[in-house]
Amino acid sequence: MIDRAITTDTLRDLAQHHGVCVRPVVHEVADTVTGQLHLVSTPCGATLASKCEPCARRNRVLRMQQCREGWHLQDEPEAPSADDEDDSEDAQETAEPTEAESSDSGDRRVRSTRRRQDAPDLPRVPMDHRTIGQTFTAPSGRTYRPSMFVTFTLPSYGRVRPDGTPVAPARYNYRRAALDALHFPKLIDRVWQNLRRCTGYQVQYFAVIEAQRRLAPHLHTALRGAIPRELLRQVASATYQHVWWPPFDVVRYPQHTLPVWDGADFVDPDTGTPLPTWAQALDSLDQQGDAAAPAHTMRLGKQIDIQGIVADEEDADRRVAYLTKYLGKSLSEPATPDTHLTRRQRAHVDRLLAELRWLPCSPRCWNWLRYGVQPDAATAEALPGSCPGKAHDEQHLGCGGRRVLVSRRWTGKTLTDHRADRADVVRQTLEAAGIDSVELDRLAADTKRADGRPRYEWRLWNAHDAPLPVYRIVLTRSIAERIRWQADYQSAKAQLGLATAAPSTGPPASS
Q1: Own/partner long-range contacts of 25-31 (Cβ < 8 Å, ≥24 apart)
Q2: Measured between alpha carbons, how far is 286 from 284 in angstroms, rounded to an integer?
Q3: CB contact set of 5 (below 8 Å; sequence gap of 6+)
Q4: 295-329 confidence digits (pLDDT tens)
Q5: Three-state secondary structure along 352-417?
Q6: What pLDDT, on a 0 to 100 scale, did the predictor assign at position 125?
Q7: Which of 99, 142, 177, 445 has its CA 20 to 30 A from that of 396?
Q8: Cα separation of 186 and 240, whole Å?
Q9: For 230, phi and psi rounded to 5 degrees?
Q10: How far is it, in rounded angstroms, from Cα 247 to Cα 46?
């Protein structure tokens, strides 16, 4: 039992040491059969170590398993169902290069375009629906199924020092750097499209967006199957992305003369004329036909790192660890632990943030009002410079979407499936050793009474309802439960003679 005299800070440190969430979400669970009330904590699920290190570490381990499992598959994975949204992001597989914008109303505009004359043509080969890579047989008779580890970067925006800061900040192209960061996932989607067309099979990927020292995003990618290096370089050189948005290079409404909400639309403060809606602005762009110009065009940088990986080599495991190494850090945090941004690096971050603050991040971005367009699904609260989109904050530095991009047929599983697999390993290990496993269905919301109605009623705990030190209670209970669970699991492994540690999941209801 944990000493009651222990301080809350020490208790939090102890929780981190044992992998217990330090920001648990507390629920009150009422047993409608016995009338008992239970306090149950569930992990906060944070992915950044600055918020909750144990949850961020658990997320990284789960991603490592996901990456490792799909990288060198021997057999085709099952295709996920249409309902499996989860975390998978896959490029559109269209027949011709297209540019598309969509709005909350569900309308989708597709603009087919001829390739830019300054972009080299790419080969087109017949498409095979396989997702696994080809095998190669060595003279010794050994069979290999190699895959790739590739890093894609963005172009230069100006010379930088070894610490990533510009040599000449006044000449550094912060606007282009910010726009490229905002639309980086769109460019990467086009890379997957082009790769699949040029290789003739459904290339699958596990990719992580990270920030270089200069704060520009780059992409570390595990690709399944071996692709000729020259073809990879050709695709990287030929891939570009147009952003077909209304123009936003001229500020029409500075902060002191912003449009006014009249109850239905934003209107010009002087004339009272409604600003064009998002749909109307796109209509105007469509009417220009071939004379229309994209609001922004982006390409990959010339630097591309390509490495071949073989499944049974230690290098594969090292690359999995490297791919997920910085998932617990925000894009602006220093890569080296226990270090802080220098004054020059701080100024670089602030200058990029100043650019990101006013640029539109999406069709719904409040910053569109500065450029004379009503945001999609506009409401009265819209205020330029205060858009709630994550892309504008320091943690994301323009990359407001997912940090991990996974194709839908990488493993054929969702993260929930991978999490369940890890729990099954633990359960089977304990059962094989004859040790009673943690009751995974404890107080489960789908447990029924004799009359078929739910037995347990879950609701968020309200701190105003009781003066008890609930944080200390649930944290102490979770730590004690985790210590007991770890002891049981280690004992089970010892009995079974398991030298390799199996996944660590912990009691799901209270960790």
Answers
A1: 25/460, 26/460, 26/461, 26/470, 26/471, 26/474, 27/458, 27/459, 27/460, 27/461, 28/458, 28/459, 28/460, 28/461, 29/443, 29/456, 29/457, 29/458, 30/456, 30/457, 30/459, 31/443, 31/455, 31/456
A2: 5
A3: none
A4: 999 999 999 999 998 877 677 888 999 999 989 88
A5: HHHHHHHCCCCCCCHHHHHHCCCCCCCCCCCCCCCCCCHHHCCCCCCCCCCCEEECCCCCCCCHHH
A6: 85
A7: 99
A8: 10
A9: -65, -35
A10: 37
The mean pLDDT of 247-266, rounded to a whole number, is: 94
**Could you tell me what percent of the chain has a pLDDT over 70?**
85
Token look-up 């037995």 returns: 455
Label residue 142 by pLDDT band (50, 70, 90).
confident
- Compute CA distances 175 → 239, 351, 358, 360, 435, whole Å: 21, 10, 10, 12, 60
- The count of other CB atoms within 10 Å of the CB of residue 443 is 17
Distance CA(223)–CA(206), nearest Å, equals: 7
What is the SS3 assignment for 427? helix
Residues, the chain, total? 511
Contact 266, 274 (CB under 8 A): yes
Among candidates 188, 191, 209, which has minimal Cα distance to 400? 209
Interacting residues of 253 by C-beta distance below 8 A, sequence separation 6+: 259, 269, 369, 370, 371, 372, 384
Integer Cα distance of 277 and 379 in angstroms? 12
pLDDT at 338: 57
| Letter string b/e over residues 24-56, b meaning 16 or more CB atoms within 10 A of that residue's CB | bebbbbbeeeeeeeebbbbbbebbbbebbbbbb
Separation of alpha carbons 482 and 505, rounded Å? 10
In one letter, which amino acid is 121?
D
Distances (CA, A) of 299 to 176, 233, 237: 11, 13, 8
At residue 98, the pLDDT reads 46
Indicate if the pLDDT at residue 3 is higher than 80. Answer: no
Beta strands of 87-139 (E only): which ranges?
98-102, 108-112, 136-137
Average pLDDT over residues 38-51: 88
- Nearest Cα neighbor of 397 from 177, 81, 227, 192 is 177
CA separation for the pair 140, 406 (Å, rounded): 35
Averaged pLDDT for residues 142-165 = 92
- For residue 414, CA distances in Å to 12, 72, 135, 213, 419 come to 31, 18, 27, 32, 9
The 8-class DSSP code of residue 23 comes to S
Structure tokens at 38: 């239970």
With a cut of 70, say whether residue 117 has pLDDT above it: no
Interatomic CA distance for residues 78 and 84, integer angstroms: 12
d(CA 406, CA 203): 11
3-state helix, strand, coil in the chain (%, to 5): 30, 15, 50
CA-closest candidate to residue 174, choices 215, 219, 218: 215
pLDDT digits (tens, 9 = 90+) for 408-445: 999 988 888 888 888 777 777 777 777 765 554 567 77
